[in-house]
Every structure is written in structure tokens, then in C-alpha cells.
Design a protein that fits this description.
Helices cover about 55% and strands about 20% of the residues. The chain is an alpha/beta fold and about 170 residues long. α2 links the parallel β4 and β5.
Length: about 170
């Protein structure tokens, strides 16, 4: 199974694709989409086009998006929310199920601590995906989201198997 992780951002949207085989995870690809255009609408269109291309190229089976946090700047939060809307829309348009995870849940799944620093997250992504060449911090975060979703899917599969065994 291939899992696409997305770290939404209006200027820089991180993405990462991993392959899941049993409990084994391996890196497929990662990158950062830099939006183009001066106005919000053009930036959103460029994010949509580039993310659509990523999905077409890497053919993931599932996707996950990191939830945004609300900060003191309401306008910036709203714009980030619109970029997150693109991050949810594009995989859904491709027919993928899309998971959503809070930043603390991603950090806990990857590092073991919900308030881990960015450097710790990147270190653990490198540890869990040996040999990975990470395109930048946003791509590292996206790979962490993909790893978190892979763990969630594995747990859900084990739970379903256990329930089938009881029935």
C-alpha cells in the first residue's frame, strides 16, 4: 500500500509518499510544492495542479493531511485553511480515503512524544525510512504524517482481524 502524507501550506506544501508492506515502511518520494501567483486564487490553483500531478505520478492508495492550528493572526489562519482545503480536496477527487491528524498525534506516532521538536521529527523520519533524502522541513513533516497514517491503518487492520477472530 502507498500512503501520501501532506503538510498543508499556502506558500510551501510538503508531501511525502511511503510504501507499507506489513510492518515495513519504505520511502517512495517527497517534495515541496511552492505555490505560484500573486493572488490567493492563483496560489490555490497552482497547489491544486501540482498536488494532482504528485498523485498521478505516485499513485497512492490512501492519503493523510495534518490538521492546522489556529494562531493569533486570523487572516493567516484562514488562508492556511484554504490551502488545507486543497490538500483534502485533491486526494478525495482521486478517490482516496483521507485521514486527518493533529500535529501532536503525528509527533507522538513518529517520535513517541506529542510535543517533539521539528528536528526530532526529522531525525525519526530518517530513522524509520533509511536512506531517505528529504527535500526540506515541510517534506519531513509530510513524511511524518504518512508514517502516522500507516501506523493507524496497521492498527485498524489488526483490530478488524481480531474482531473477525472473535466472531
Amino acid at each position: 500500500m502507498r500512503v501520501l502524507g501532506i503538510d498543508p501550506g499556502l506558500r510551501n506544501l510538503g508531501w511525502g509518499v511511503i510504501e507499507v508492506q506489513g510492518s515495513r515502511l519504505s520511502h517512495v518520494a517527497n517534495g515541496i510544492i511552492h505555490s505560484e501567483g500573486g493572488d490567493l486564487a492563483r496560489r490555490l490553483v497552482s497547489l491544486h495542479s501540482a498536488l494532482t500531478e504528485v498523485i498521478a505520478r505516485h499513485e497512492p492508495d490512501a492519503a493523510a493531511v495534518e490538521q492546522t492550528f489556529v494562531n493569533k493572526d486570523a487572516v493567516a489562519t484562514l488562508k492556511l485553511g484554504q490551502a488545507r482545503g486543497i490538500a483534502l480536496l485533491v486526494p478525495a477527487q482521486a478517490g482516496l480515503s483521507v485521514g486527518e491528524y493533529a500535529p501532536n498525534a503525528v509527533k507522538k506516532a513518529v517520535v513517541g512524544v506529542g510535543h517533539a521538536a521539528k528536528g526530532q521529527v526529522e531525525h525519526m523520519v530518517r530513522f524509520q525510512l533509511p536512506g531517505v533524502d528529504i527535500a526540506g522541513a515541510d517534506a519531513a513533516d509530510a513524511l511524518a504524517v504518512a508514517i502516522c497514517h500507516a501506523h493507524h491503518l496497521q492498527s485498524a487492520g489488526r483490530m478488524a482481524a481480531a474482531l473477525r477472530g472473535v466472531a
